[in-house]
Design goal:
The complex is a heterotrimer of chains A (383), B (373) and C (325).
Chain A lengths: L35 H19 L5 H24 L1 H39 L2 H5 L7 H10 L8 H32 L4 H14 L3 H16 L6 H25 L3 H9 L4 H29 L3 H6 L18 H10 L8 H31 L7
Helix pairs in contact in A: 1-2, 2-3, 3-14, 6-9, 6-11, 6-13, 7-9, 8-9, 9-11, 10-11, 11-14, 13-14
Chain B lengths: L3 H17 L30 E7 L4 H12 L5 E6 L3 H10 L4 E4 L5 H6 L1 H4 L4 E12 L11 E2 L1 H8 L9 H6 L11 E5 L4 H14 L17 E3 L1 H11 L3 E3 L1 E2 L10 E4 L2 E3 L3 H9 L2 E2 L10 E2 L13 E9 L1 E2 L2 H15 L1 H11 L6 H12 L2 E2 L1
Parallel strand pairs in B: 1-2, 1-3, 5-10, 6-7, 6-8, 15-16
Antiparallel strand pairs in B: 3-14, 4-9, 4-14, 10-11, 12-13
Helix pairs in contact in B: 2-12, 11-13
Chain C lengths: L30 H36 L11 H38 L2 H16 L2 H27 L15 H26 L2 H9 L4 H30 L2 H6 L17 H8 L6 H31 L7
Helix pairs in contact in C: 1-10, 2-5, 2-7, 3-5, 4-5, 5-7, 6-7, 7-10, 9-10
The chains are: A mainly alpha (383), B alpha/beta (373), C mainly alpha (325).
Amino acid sequence: MAIQTQHTGSDVTPPPRKRGPMEGIELSTVRPAGDRIGYAVLLGALALAATLWLAGGLNVVLAAVVGFLVYLAGVYTAYRVVGGRRVATDHVMRGLVYGAFILAVLPLVSLLWTVVGQGIPRAFHPDFLLQTMNGVTGVQDEATMQEGAPMVGGAYHAVVGTLVITGIATVLSVPIGLFTAIYLVEYSNKNALSHVIRFLVDVMTGIPSIVAGLFAFALWAMVFGIGTKDALAGAVALSVLMIPTVVRSSEEMLRIVPNDLREASLALGVPKWRTVAKVVLPTAASGLASGVTLAIARVIGETAPLLVAVGYARGLNLNPVEGPMNSLAVYAYYMFTRPLNPGFRDPSLERAWAAALLLVLLVVALNLTARLIAKLFAPKTGR
Amino acid sequence: MKVLRPGAAGMLLVAALALAACGDDNPTGAFEGDDYEVTDAGPLADPQLSGTLSASGSSAQESAQTAWIAGYRGVQPDVRLIYDAIGSGGGRENLISGASPVVGSDAYLDEEERERVTDVCGDGGALHVPVYIAPIAIPYNLPGVEQLNLSPEVLARVFSREIETWDDPAIAEINPGADLPSTEITVVNRSDDSGTTENFLEYLHVVGGDAWPYEPDAAWPVAGGESAAQTTGVMQVTGSTVGAITYTDASAVGTLPTAAVGVGGDFVDYTPEAAAAVVDASTPVDTGVEGDLALELARDTTEEGTYPIVLVSYLIACSAYDDAQTADLVTNYLRYVISEQGQQAAADAAGSAPISQTLREAATTTIDSIQGG
Amino acid sequence: MSTTPPSARTPAAVPAPAPDRSPRRGQVRRPGDLVFSGASLASGLLIMAILAGVATFLLVQSLPVLTADPGEVTGEAGFAAYVLPLIVGTVLASVLAMAMATPVAVGIALFVSHYAPRRLGASIGFVIDLLAAVPSVVFGMWGWQVLAPRLVPAFAWLEANLGWVPLFAEGSNTGRTIATASLVLAVMILPIITAVSREVFLQTPRLHEEAALALGATKWEMIRTAVLPFGKPGVIGGTMLGLGRALGETMAVAIILSTGGFTWNIIGPGNSTIPAEIALNFPEAAGLRLSELIAAGLVLFVITLVVNLVARYIVEKRSEFSGAN
């Protein structure tokens, strides 16, 4: 079944035909060809790659690349013979698309493998979870490595700090973000201001995290004197990053609340604000909650703004308006780049990876929670 | 929804507070609960003081300060000591603005800063007490070469990337008997601004002569070298790269061999004693403050047994305080820091070189001159 | 506050059939309404204030360096000379990342939208989102410890075989290069480009696709003639968004890159980016240095702003958000 005549949909112009979307499909025969040939070539390529790797002593990555190229060439040749050029191209492109997918999964797998592998030994040790680094110096680490002394010091203060800072950031940004979304959807009537706000939210989405940190630092410098660093400044920086996410997701969620509901409520004489509070928000609740959770997940792993605005503390600090506080991301960064004892790095690296694992678990848990909320409490609105 | 929204944040905060109840903020046992006791009753523990002393500054001192804070608890249990490692520059700014009564700094106050500090410290200005001597070692990664001598000139030419391979005649000449490979030299430097870089550059500047055309700075001036952040980064790169050479705080060297540096025709390995010796051989700078111990380090010393590449970090205090209590706290803390036990604590925790008895006596005189009230 | 239109219908009492215009209009002002709409408006205005604040505060804190004697700025040649190599490095790293990520991202987007079974596509979407959620500091640690050493042989090969290209002049012995950093950045921006592309690919009119297939096009021909032309603006927009993210990405570059002055050699040490420069030096900066770094941050803010605006413009032109009803 070849394309004999170009049919350009509703366009009835006779030949010479208009340049349409079908332009570029050449007219050559396509013979049906099963997928089996493809699988056969794939097996062959895999076998070749494995041989090169195991027997030929070739680097595993190189072997995989060679195998992939051989697969592409093989598929092309085979289908060229069996089904013609167009079929062959189709299969090569299919191979490339699948290849792209595998290529993207590789770093993720490698990364998770590394984080879990390096983090597991320490991450769930009670000493790590329940101790701070207060008073811990290179001496203890040296003793651990030289004399096998138990490892001292953990990320307890960082875990608490992360929760405090992120908690405050959430308290700050959710009302602002939600009310802005309410304004955009319920009150603005698409006036000029709403366009400006929506535009600015877009601009805010693009603020680099370190610039948000600098903003908080600069603000604090002007209000409390230069160099003031505390958890609240960090929370403000995170809020700058969180607000646009919250606005966008909330706006989307409020928009999918059917107008029928609003109309029904208004028709019953319910004031507008009560309609919003009692009808619109509860209907969108699951979506809003899931959006907020995702926004939290997005900022909980931020390092740069906290590095700039909050600083680094060794001990426990529960006061968000006084002095530096630690957080998991900054803790991991410091432990990784400046271990307590540069001559005996391993304990510090172990702490860094353990903190990284906790952070990744936290992020994954938040993501799953968001999905779960969205799924379990989804309104029956026939989206 | 109205319940859900604060719910998420509330949950986080509650979790944080719940967690706060069960953690251990004293993992080393250095701080014995809230009621500290004098475990180290010496002359410094008399009289017993109380209050909060908030110092800030040099991050090079951070490990040592951590040890001092822990040790000082045993001397003055009621004094709450805080050290915020915000960097030397930030520390000096804090002294000038009055935010910290005493600060740590890797460099002494320059003329302009000395003038500005009189606003807070009075006309007497500020006093520098050298409290932390860190030898800067030259570790290299060259399997099979256990001993390496580098004269100042060769050192300068290696670090300016003029000498490119290890078997260069200039190196071979001063290392007879060493089996030098033809490996390329990878010079590793700090990518961030650092006092270690500045002191090393100062040394090269003074001794390198024509071989070292660069000015001292906190940032590394030579282009094209391998760089890494922080001491650790530098060590990680050096340790994993055959042919690499770097400069670093001696406490960070670990298992790598270090080069012996040419001093007056001889080659000296770094040792704490040799590092302390160069400080003794140095002369105080004239800062216009009597008894001030800001030092012009004798980088070009030819004295036997001195190791000239050191970083000296000071605690800078006012020569007079309006408040007698602050003055007592500062002087008592300074006395502890320069005491034998204080210096030993720093040496154990940070690998620094304890100051010599001579310097301790000079520093005691300086500290005694601090006025209060 | 003027959001209630003047034409006040008597609401509530008259459940009039919903007119064409939004039925939300035209309530009497009740205290509750005032508070609610006031709070909403205030939040919107606060966002404007925050954004203005970001620009203003950064500018105020940068003033000392902008007015300083050029000799006192790092590099002793003024702020422009200091920041220019950083800008070039930032752009270089981001553009490299973009160039590497875009083809792969389009591939994945096609895989999800047109090749994978629907159910699988959703879970793949989740996995890719996970990639976006991994904190950048973790990417940095992974890049330094896992990726960089494995790239050393590749760099050596490039130097040996393509050494005459200035980009591959001298291979690094540690793998901590701008190329490595860009590769990690590419992985980090992959989810963004993928998400946007997937979205527009899925929006391709079904009729176009089926028409192509009905005409006997192979799957690839259908994609090339129907899906890609339709999705092109979305892909470009997504790529620009990814670029914006890469420009501002801090920790991964700060950890991985062996920073130094500008060089075209991307497989050796050297170059730096604005965010990395700030993160590395900020904790100990004071005085003019602090102002310098904040000013560099301001420059970064402006660059990302421009890139993001262009990106948004392209994306918005493509797909208007569909409102309720």
